[in-house]
Amino acid sequence: MHTITFTCETITPMFLSGADGTTPELRAPSIKGALRFWWRAMNGHLANPQRGGIPNLLREDERLFGGVNEGGKSSVLVRVNMLQETPFFGKDIDRTKEGLAYLLYILVHQQKEREGFKASTSKSNKTEFLITLESKGNSDSDLKKGVAAFWLFIFLGALGTRARRGAGAIAVNTIIDRDNILENYLSFIPHNQETMSNFINRNLTEIKRQFPNIHNLNVNNEYSTIAPNHIYTSNRDFATWQEALDDIGKTMKDIRTSTKTLKFTVYDLDKKAAFGLPIGIWQDNPVNFETNQRRASPLWISVIRNYQGRLQWIITHFQGNFMENGDKIVFATKNYKMSLPKKNKGKSGWTTIKSELLDNFITKVKNQSTQINY
Questions:
Q1: How far is residue 227's CA from residue 41's CA, in Å, rounded to a whole number?
Q2: pLDDT at 105 (0 to 100)
Q3: pLDDT band at 281 (very low <50, low <70, confident <90, very high)
Q4: What is the DSSP letter of 223?
Q5: Residue 93: CB atoms within 10 Å
Q6: Residue 10 burial (C-beta neighbours within 10 Å; 0-12, 13-18, 19+)
Q7: Cα 316 to chain center, whole Å?
Q8: What is the pTM of this model?
Q9: pLDDT in tens, 42-78
């Protein structure tokens, strides 16, 4: 049995509720769910039809992290212990920062009273907790897989409401690794004046070295995966999380709400659909797949902390098909009745999306960041 314990803290506010749906609570199942997601995202090759498709990916997922088919057993165990909590509410978000308010819109405007965990700013004003990863047997092979997923979660991901738009980011402060599992493997604490782009690249290269089939070209495009050249770290660093998210939030807002080059109407919302579905309008979700499935954004915006303690934004652009074959995007609202324009008469929805806005956003991001090529 091997264990690694990470002392972590929030670096952006985290909004994550417990069993009652309102009380902030960080639980082991939430962390394990995040590990599942990132492990799948880095193992798209396991879902290749020649390997058995998505069921093959899910079988290995369940073997590592537990599931119904494995009788609930898992090779990698997760424990969480809270050390210190500081409350933070949606209304505490600085709505004068237009980019920040845009990314965290639902918390600023619709969930003002929602309570979460504050981003840590000092020893007495922080949210801190322990996350322990433990392997069941004497081999460290499965634990290293879990650690790789945990690294991706810490540096590319986040947890809770608006996690894909910057909320719920976490940093590691200290590590207890008595069996030296991390030696000559992955680093969780930037140091030695290394730029964050080099730090991210170095660790992703190590993950790829340990698991050489990762990013195999024969990935299953039905599942969203991470890939080289689609991760970006900001060139600027910032003193606060508010400044970091405001910076990238303004870029996204300018692209998605521009009235100089594009005025959105009900007829061209398929351009905004590329950022994720459903799209909410008038406190409704009128733009969605005909099958009513949710499509999470292919863009994950998070915040990371460099060796100086300053913050930078990081973006992961997931690769994969946007919609399933045969599905389509429709406009249907319970509050309003609108028809498609004459040029679309006879059509009942969009069978493809237009990536114009998403491509423009990525182009602007490239001008503000360093592209990770590992």
A1: 9
A2: 92
A3: low
A4: S
A5: 22
A6: buried
A7: 8
A8: 0.91
A9: 988 888 877 788 888 888 899 999 875 654 688 999 9
Q: What is the DSSP letter of 238?
A: B
What is the CB neighbour count within 10 angstroms for residue 278? 17
Tokens of 186: 């992955």
Task: Say if residue 290's pLDDT is above 70.
Answer: no
Contacts of 118 (CB under 8 A, 6+ apart): 10, 13, 86, 87, 88, 92, 125, 126, 127
**C-alpha closest to that of 355 among 255, 266, 215:** 255
Structure tokens at 220: 């299953």
Pairing of strands 299-305, 311-317: antiparallel
State yes or no: pLDDT of 165 exceeds 60.
yes
Q: What residue ranges do the domains of the chain occupy?
A: 3-371
Distance CA 268, CA 264 (A): 6
C-alpha pair distances (Å), 40 with each of 148, 149, 176, 334: 11, 9, 26, 36
Using CA atoms, how far residue 317 sits from 103, 157, 296, 365, in Å, is 16, 12, 12, 11
Integer Cα distance of 4 and 224 in angstroms: 28
The 3-state DSSP class for residue 333 equals coil
Chain centre to alpha carbon of residue 246: 17
Amino acid of residue 303: V
Longest CA–CA span in the chain (Å) reads 69
* Residue 102 neighbours by CB distance under 10 Å: 22
Question: Of 203, 241, 247, nearest to 10 (Cα)?
Answer: 241
Q: Output phi, psi for 45, to 5 deg.
A: -65, -25
The DSSP output letter for 269 is T
Q: Compute the average pLDDT of residues 202-214.
A: 87
